From TrEMBL:
InterPro entries xref list: DUF4148
Protein name: DUF4148 domain-containing protein
UniProt superkingdom: Bacteria
Keyword match Signal: yes
Length: 105
């Protein structure tokens, strides 16, 4: 009976540690943004037609939603282009400065 209990406790601890490890590898989407990330997002929004503090409060929700939609479309297009691209610089495979074969003795 003690052996069965020990096996159950060990099995549960292994399963719990595996679950914790799996969760730690998932990127956290609710992590706070850095100042640089917020600044980059504002620059993207400004390039897509939304200007902070321009005095146009009458169209605030629609204007930012339209700019965010354009940014999302651009990001999706960039991600698609990167996924469909191929090729690139191949790493160098030659070793210069070494003799081709060991000298005979």
């Amino acid at each position: 009976m003690k052996c069965l209990f020990k096996a159950a406790v060990i099995g549960m601890s292994i399963a719990a540690s595996a679950a914790v490890f799996a969760q730690s590898n998932v990127p956290q989407s609710n992590a706070p943004l850095t100042r640089a990330q917020v600044r980059a997002e504002l620059i993207q929004l400004e390039r897509n037609g939304y200007h902070v503090g321009d005095g146009d409060e009458a169209h605030y929700p629609e204007a930012i939603q339209q700019a965010e939609a354009r940014v999302a479309a651009q990001n999706a297009a960039a991600k698609s282009a990167a996924a469909n691209a191929y090729g690139g610089a191949a790493p160098a495979a030659s070793q210069g400065g070494q003799p081709a074969a060991a000298p005979a003795r």
